[in-house]
Write a structure and sequence with these properties.
This protein is of the alpha+beta class. It has three domains: about 150 residues; about 60 residues, no CATH class; about 240 residues, EAL domain (TIM Barrel). It contains 14 helices and 21 strands. The C terminus is likely disordered. Bound molecules: ligand LFPHGCPZ. Ligand LFPHGCPZ binds next to strand 14, helix 5 and strand 18. It is a multi-pass membrane protein. Keywords: c-di-GMP, Cell membrane, Hydrolase, Membrane, Transmembrane, Transmembrane helix. Its EC number is 3.1.4.52. InterPro entries: CSS-motif_dom, Cyclic-di-GMP_PDE-like, EAL_dom, EAL_sf.
Length: about 525
Amino acid sequence: MRKKTLLSFALVVGVLALATPLVVAYRLAQQDGHDEANAYLESLALDVLRRSDATRAQIDMAVLLLRSGPPLLPCSEEQLARMRVVVARSSYLVGFGYLDGTRLMCSTMATFEAPVELGPPHRINPPHIWSWGGVALPGVPGALFNINAHDEYAAIIAPQLVIDILDQNSTLSLSQVGGHPPRMLRTRGVFKREWLAHYDGKPAEFTDAEHFVVVRPSHNGQNEVFAAMTRDQVEGLIRSAAWRRMPIGLLVGVLLAALVFLIARNRLSFKTELQAALKRHEFFLLYQPVIDLRHGRCTGAEALIRWHRSDGVVVPPMVFIPAAEKSGMIQKITASVLQMVARDAAQLLRDNPQTHIAINFSAEDLHSPQTESRLQALVRECGAASHNIIIEATESGLMSPEKARGILARIRQQGFRVAIDDFGTGNSSLSYLATYDLDFLKIDKSFVDDLGNDPSSTQMAFHIIQIARSLGLQMIAEGVETERQRDILRDAGVQFAQGYVFGKPMPMADLAEFIRQRNGPAVDKP
Ligand SMILES: Nc1nc2c(ncn2[C@@H]2O[C@H](COP(=O)(O)O[C@H]3[C@@H](O)[C@H](n4cnc5c(=O)[nH]c(N)nc54)O[C@@H]3COP(=O)(O)O)[C@@H](O)[C@H]2O)c(=O)[nH]1
């Protein structure tokens, strides 16, 4: 990836890394604020319903007590005294009275000069309980009462008592509605009749242009409480939740953005480091001998790159080659490998014209138009022939078949030989492999390791050998560490092998000596 692209990519990912936790934190804060509003309004609504139930229970109990004593003369001092005792014992009843039909004859609250005509009841529920709302009583000016009558006994209730659970300054709204059609039983704050349309007998929450409303029905379904707060109040709760959530979101965002920054810097600096290493010629090659298993001669070697850093550490290719591939540096490194082979191997190839040097190519090398000219320059510079060079391409390098196939075909036409490396570790199939012009198939070390020990690895290795045979490819087994592995491979018809049993990767001078010893008249067969 080019520096500019990497920077833009890192910037976009960094901004996303910073913004995403903030957005998530805000969304959670919105949810928290909403949940808080919901929970608070629900608790208020349930409280009103609980008080309403308690009021009803107190009325029932009061009527029971009034009826339990010996019958008294209606509106007599004795009856009013009994009513006063009952009222004193209850917390939600403010008075009691005696009814004759719809006329309130007397009450504990005030003495009437004449009976108070209440008119037709506002609600009858169940049949023997009649209710009136908003009743003005003589002797108690400026107050309106609800009256709840059980036959002749009328409980007098201050409607606000049930609903006055908010402090005076509260701007929340609470309304209890009951009956069919619905009538307002008691209210405080705002109530809009259109809210009734949102309620279908089940608990509900909804928002209109100005309010967030929670509705909770009583357990007997006879009335329901609407608790509401303004949308500004909900926003206030969201804001306080955001104050709690956002710092965590910000912290996570900053950490993620810092991580992105560090990774990008690492990538960029690694690329810079590779560039500097190339300039300072810190890369060098070791050569691992390849042995012909039939007669034990060394037929060539694989060039394996190492990075001798200025701090003295020798970095193996597994560490920097993948990073070089990702940072777009691999072609420069391969070009340097070709130059080093040209320099290192010139003498060896002149002295041993039948030997080869195998060079690893990455996917990008196989897709580059410069590869052919670089290979031509290599053989020209070291005075070798193209058959002295084997290109090792990994399965992943062949993954863009259109580009790779063309280059490989042209390279082979010019006499260079091609091996597929690490075969079996990717997803290549036999039919896929058959579409390429190849000379060698390298059997990956992972299949060689357990040869003769693990039946499935052994079977896999034999299967790969079968594939190579069916495609007419010669085989090079890699990672051969024991004589047993060597013998099994040789007996299975594998022609070539490399591995520690023959020789570890070594400098060119050592390789020349190795070949002299191995291929000279005194050479031991494997
Ligand atoms: N694109 C390029 N890739 C390269 C280049 N040089 C090396 N590589 C690739 O790096 C991978 C690791 O290579 P390396 O650490 O050099 O390991 C090689 C051998 O040292 C190791 N090997 C060989 N025999 C044995 C053995 O008997 N035991 C054992 N434990 N290890 C052994 O195997 C590696 C050779 O692998 P391969 O190339 O698949 O034959 C590796 O994938 C290299 O390809 C480069 O210049 N360019």
